Amino acid sequence: MTESWVNYAERIGVDLHLELSGPGGRRAALTRALREAVRGGRLAPGTRLPPYRSLAADLGVARNTVADAYAELVAEGWLTARQGSGTRVAERARPLRRAVDVPAQAPARTGGPRHDLRQGRPDASAFPRAAWAASYRRALQAAPSEAFGPGDPAGRRELRETLAEYLARARGVRTEPDRIVICSGFAHALRLLFGRDAPGSTGGAGGAGGPAGGGVLRGPLGVETYGLGFHRDLLAAAGVRTVPLPLDEHGARVAALGRERAVLLTPAHQFPTGGPLRPERRAAVIDWARARGAVVLEDDYDGEFRYDRRPVGALQGLDPERVIHIGSVSKSLSPALRLGWMVLPERYVEPVLAAKGEREGWASVPDQLALADFVACGSYDRHVRRMRQRYRGRRDRLVAALAERAPHIEVTGIAAGLHAVLRLPPGTERTVVEAAARRGVALDGLAAFRHPDGPASAGDGLVVGYAAPADHAYGAALEALCEVLAAA
Question: What is the pTM of this model?
């Protein structure tokens, strides 16, 4: 079996974290990085390097790039290559000894945990570079000259039209391009809707006419007891009071809603506990919004990734005038692409655009055009199908490994998304998270996501992001996790 660079590095006790930066392209950067690793002693004489395929996959470069870099270093005498023996560091390529009066360099930056199982992170190595580059080229070639001037705060028309069609087809969203506003992600959407510095709206149904200091919406805002603390902090900084809603296996208990002016939900796949909002509760929250003149914020953070059945349609489809549907490509493509969207009731479009300002200052226009082409040509659908299959396989491997190695640990929630919740024996969450960290496994405990005023109804557990590691690194991460959990 071919050994990957990561697994090989772990076995010999080093972790090189090659940084491919600097002039001359990726081959030149790789050549420099390997040369420095040998010169600095991180790759000892006689060390066998991984095959082209493994290193290329780990670094996200073409195999020819690795092959050319190896060939150059062989020609320079840094490496040797023999049939059947692979590529090794030359015996004569020993690091220079430091003079006594030369201060030692600072230790190399580790670059993060050995095994990254944190939630919310897609497999970065799976980004569709070639297809994205092709869409980017086509989009730039077809773009009118005015696209490179000041941007429309609503976002490029090309992307809004494409999203209107895609969201209707894939998520059951009912909208039109003029009701879509492009943003840089979910956090940006919250800032626009509740931001203290945004100009207030003109008032009207649904809580428009923001709190003191500005904003399109105002609190109090109902939120699920378990969710991202980052979002709660952002809302608190804008002066918005959040009211936690109890959770059970059927999602948020929306019957607990009272005088809140809005509610924020993750109905397709509750984050992080993992259940969908059951149908009668979906209907009930729409009835509450109509009766109260309130609005529902739908965070559709991973709605496309359902593995045991077709994805549940968006809540927005039940009442487009009472639901603000918010999505992004941070889970489906990459968080590095700062692109998201709000599908708004008609009365909120102008207030949101006023909050955003006269020009697009957040989402790159070339990136918007590229995403429009990427979706329109079918590349986005193909990528989502491919990743749906890959992540389903990851989750299945996790469930099977736990059943064999730690059968007392239960995997809860539906088969969906990029993470799973593992139930732990009461009182063990903190010690297990600490034990995992000592083993080099980065993950989160459930308690980290609980609203400070909400009940600890989910018990002890771990939130395991099975999507984050690259394919070649997932087995080692799973093995390390099972070793920790077997002793829990």
Answer: 0.74
Q: Give per-residue pLDDT as tens, 188-233.
A: 999 999 985 444 333 333 333 333 335 799 889 999 999 998 899 9
DSSP state of 207: G
Portion of the chain with pLDDT greater than 90, in percent: 58
Q: Which amino acid is at 131?
A: A
Long-range contacts of 133-138 (CB under 8 A, 24+ apart): 134/379, 135/370, 135/371, 135/373, 135/374, 135/377, 135/379, 136/366, 136/370, 136/373, 138/373, 138/377
Give CA–CA dist 35/95, Å, rounded: 11
100, burial (CB in 10 Å: exposed 0-12, middle 13-18, buried 19+): exposed
* Omega before residue 272 within 30° of 0, cis: yes
Cα radius of gyration (the chain): 25
In one-letter notation, the amino acid at residue 468 is A
Q: What count of Cα atoms within 13 Å lies in the side-chain half-sphere of residue 94?
A: 5
Contact assessment for residue 344 and residue 217, using Cβ atoms and an 8 Å cutoff? no
Cα–Cα dist 413/466, whole Å: 14
Nearest to 316 by CA among 303, 340, 298: 298
Instruction: Name which of 231, 215, 228, 226 is nearest 251 in CA terms.
Output: 226
- Cα dist. 484→9, 421, 427, 438, 487 in Å? 21, 15, 16, 10, 6
Distance CA 58, CA 472 (A): 8
